[in-house]
Amino acid sequence: MEDHLDTASVLEELRALEPIFHTQAFGTTMDDFAHRMVDDYWEIGASGARYDRAFILKHLASTPPVDAEAAGWITSHHQVRRLAADTFLLTYQLQQLERVTWRSTVWRRSEQGWQVVFHQGTVISS
Question: What is the C-alpha separation between 91 and 125, in angstroms, rounded?
Fold first, then answer.
């Protein structure tokens, strides 16, 4: 693992993985999804509800995620901030038809690659 990750490079790598669960780069299989999340992953949905890793995996098994590119979802205003040597916060805006949200994802780089630690979506217009 690299000790000094360049934030510009990290930004490009993480942009390709977002929105999480909705890109080919993030993954397309249940094994991919499980691998991309740390064991204690959790998120706060745009509804304000809290979801843990087990809930997310169960949901994905029964309802395959929408492919963001095919659905015409647009991401913009990407920014990255280093939180620790191997941990970064990525923020961006996601437009899904009429709904616009701010997204925040905490990513950790491990020997297995990038993994999500936490995610939150906040509706700003619908």
Answer: 17
Mean pLDDT, contiguous 10-residue spans, the chain (126 residues):
76 97 96 97 93 97 95 97 97 95 97 96 88
* Rounded-to-integer distance, Cα 57 and Cα 112, Å: 19
Indicate the pTM of the whole model: 0.92
Give the Å distances, CA to CA, from 124 to 51, 70, 100.
20, 23, 6
Nearest to 90, CA basis, from 6, 13, 4, 26 = 13
Residue 35 CB coordination number (10 Å): 12
Domain definitions of the chain by residue range: 7-125
Assigned architecture for domain 7-125? Roll (3.10)
